[in-house]
Specification:
With 306 residues, the protein is of the alpha/beta class. It is built from ten helices and 16 strands. Helix 10 links the parallel strand 14 and strand 15.
């Protein structure tokens, strides 16, 4: 299961109720900050989640409404907050702008108290943990090296406790070994194989987070059968030409993508201040009923069975 907390859901400039683009994706002990718009560190504090383990930052692109909060966040890490290391992942063009912000503005010759690692990434796997992966994929927006991210649990076989009980498998490390795919020996000499206590392979949950984009046809495959799709909705269909001009989406375009890709839940964010939230929801739900508009501090759990 993944959990996503929205810290900022406004497009381009903050509004009275919406901060700039940022969200935290959590999975067990891992926490990923996706984008870091101006004011993100205050939103983190306001949400009550704190900075602990927030050492992976994934950037979708280099526009200021998605990266400017890095300056304040890093400044806080320099003076007040203890963090073991900080990893920032981005495409080449985005990373160049981040380097200027970090080294020329924030640090100015000073050193960070923790290792600061700037990772230039390309489409493909960014991070692989024991039970999930984070992958980047290309997105079409204004400028080069724009990316989206897929958070996907690895397939697994459920442990069938009733079968283990019937076979006399004791509670403890023996069951853990079977889950890991290893054969065990019981005290009476019998050998138990994983196939005897594990069910059929099941897909894990899949969360797709798209940053700003002006096209959707190139996202169909990566979004296919996602349990949740997070995507921008800067414009309404009445302003489709303006959306095209600035390489953004309408609520209708996001909903059509979700429908074609067989997505289970659509979460719209990056809303322009020119529209009422209820109009954005109405446009999306007319095409894809299971669509919602994220507000700052909304939290969603992404599970395979929901």
């Amino acid at each position: 299961m993944f959990e996503i907390l929205f810290l900022g859901t406004s497009a381009s400039a903050p509004s009275a109720k919406r901060g700039l683009s940022s969200q935290i994706v959590a999975h067990n002990e891992y926490r990923f900050l996706v984008d870091c718009g101006e004011g993100t560190q205050r939103q983190i504090l306001q949400a009550g989640v704190g900075f602990k383990r927030l050492n992976h930052i994934l950037l979708t692109h280099g526009h200021l409404d998605h990266i400017l909060g890095l300056g304040g966040l890093l400044s806080t890490f320099l003076r007040w907050e203890a963090i073991e290391e900080l990893n920032i992942y981005a495409g080449a063009a985005t990373l160049e702008r981040v380097k200027a912000l970090v080294y020329d503005v924030v640090l100015r010759g000073n050193r960070t108290p923790m290792p600061l690692n700037l990772h230039e990434i390309k489409p493909g796997i960014v991070l692989e943990a024991e039970d999930f992966t984070v992958s980047a994929f290309p997105v079409t927006h204004r400028g080069p090296d724009c990316l989206g991210y897929v958070f996907e649990e690895k397939p697994k076989r459920p442990f069938l406790a009733e079968k283990a009980d019937a076979l006399g498998v004791p509670f403890g490390p023996e069951r853990k070994q079977l889950v890991a795919g290893k054969e065990i020996a019981l005290a009476d000499g019998r050998r138990i194989t994983p196939d005897e206590v594990l069910g059929a392979w099941e897909k894990g949950s899949k969360l797709v987070v798209v940053g700003d984009t002006g096209r959707t046809e190139n996202l169909l495959e990566v979004c296919k059968e996602a349990d949740a799709l997070v995507i921008e909705s800067t414009y309404l269909d009445a302003d489709a030409e303006m959306a095209k001009q600035f390489s953004h989406l309408t609520a209708k375009m996001g909903a059509e993508l979700a429908k074609k890709a067989g997505v289970k839940k659509l979460i719209l964010t990056h809303l322009s201040r020119r529209y009422r939230e209820k109009d954005v929801i109405a446009e999306a739900q007319s095409i894809f009923p299971n669509a919602v508009v994220a507000r700052d501090f909304d939290t969603y759990q992404v599970k395979r069975d929901e």
